[in-house]
Design goal:
By secondary structure, the protein is an alpha/beta fold. The chain has helices at about 20-30, 35-45, 60-70, 90-100, 120-125, 145-160, 175-185, 305-315, 350-360, 380-390, 420-430, 490-510, 515-520; strands at about 5-10, 30-35, 50-55, 75-80, 110-115, 130, 135-140, 165, 195-200, 205-210, 225-230, 235, 240, 335-340, 365, 375-380, 395, 405, 440-445, 455-460, 465-470, 485-490, 525, 530. The radius of gyration is 30 Å and the shape is globular. The model is unreliable at about 290-295 (pLDDT under 50).
Amino acid sequence: MQKGKIFVVGFGPGDREHITKRAVDALQQSDHIMGYKTYVELIEHLVTAKMIVSTGMTEEVSRAQEAVKQAEAGHIVSVISSGDSGVYGMAGLVYEVLIEKGWTEATGIEVEVVPGISAINSCASLLGAPVMHDSCTISLSDHLTPWTVIEKRIEAAAMADFVIAFYNPKSGRRTRQIVEAQRILLKYRSPDTPVGLVKAAYRDTQDIILTTLSEMLEHDIGMLTTVVVGNSSTFFYDNKIITPRGYQRKYTLGEEKQILKPHQRLKKEAEPWALNQETGEAKSGYEKIVAVEKKTPKVEISSLELANEALSLVQKEQKEENPFLVQQQQESIFEFAVSPGVANKMITPQQMITLAEVVGERGTMEYTPDHRLVIKVPSDNPQKLVAIVEQTGLIVQPVGDVVLVKACDFCYGEKAESIPYAEKIMETLGGIKMPKELHVGFNGCGMACYRAVFDDIGIVYRKKKFDLFIGSKPVGRTAHAAQPVVEGLAPEQLIPLLTDIIADYQKNAHPNERFFKYFKRVKKILNFEHVDMTCKIKVEEAPCGD
């Protein structure tokens, strides 16, 4: 079988003139293209691939996994990122997935990272020259990085007078981070520090705003905005943001003849602030950063502790620790869901106490619309936690892109006739890995009060038989119920039919393709023809494109 290949392509800001030739060549060589749907739309006109898979935000890991899978099957795959794929892009994730599978460059599939123009560069070109001195990029997304770590990085960059480019500054759900970033910066920077807000650089919706650090939040900032904050020497000039090349000039601007010739500008006398190569020292007074000395309180040491310290020094066992060493440990987060049962909706006080002890101070517990609690807790021993929770009688379930089974409360047990069928569905199909989270809803009577007909697959028990509904669109302004496909299904036929429908979706859907989108695309699942159930009234498209 032919060996596949993965291109991880950074296509820059998105317009044709700023995509490299190598990026275009890689896209045109590929028979599979994978990327965030907005990015796919930007490069779709450049590709001839037979398979284009576009997915939503936050689904990067599954994109990387699918790319590796297709490349291992012999395909040429391009995984795309805007900007540069190695700067908050897909390159690292692709390598992480490969490493987990034991990949090596010598024996594994070929990987080529194709560089692109990152946002800090494209946005700087539109603002003038704000990144002429030392700079850094900081993502404000705490989706994968703890906010406490991001805070420290902002503080350090602000204190060190870096020009800063903030990526992912704000989204619909993350609105506070940019406020906190401004607060930290104002501790070290003037309120009049120049700030550039660039939205959708070099695209049709491009928008550029020049503002200041104190007024930046008065303007619209979103996920497509890059926020460029100047340093203490940055200034405005003629609708441009300019950062001088250095704090001390070794040349004279405006003079036709420079005072210092090129070979003289690098002499010690011309740059008295530079580090002495022999002594390792530099003269102070040229920097604008003032270090604040913290007084360490005097600690009383007992005579025994003093003796032990002296002994360890004599024996040369004392190890010096570097107080400035930064080590951000990677932490294992165990994520799982719990419920009291398919039909049971009651959690006992003892079960809640156990869950609170498992979650502790550093974990989280979130109630979901699926009648489950999602637990996220740092742990290197997931099996131990599962055992503790299951001992209380709670059901432990996987989370993510799996089959989720939920049922009504069967009128608090008064209509219990169909409960065994719901429990069998959970036992047989619950937790199976899917291309995208698949919701199976079960109602114990024709009232369907738990809205099973608004799940991906809806089951309604009526007159000792089952009605089946598939393909609802449960969210959005164009939401609609599922279409009825079977009425009066015999109980013994229910699970075999559900198994076949789920297997069809599992095998043939694109990664991250929701069930209703899959049904609409393929037009037919088993012998069930797709029927358009959407509202026929024209509704303006949402800004996100959904």
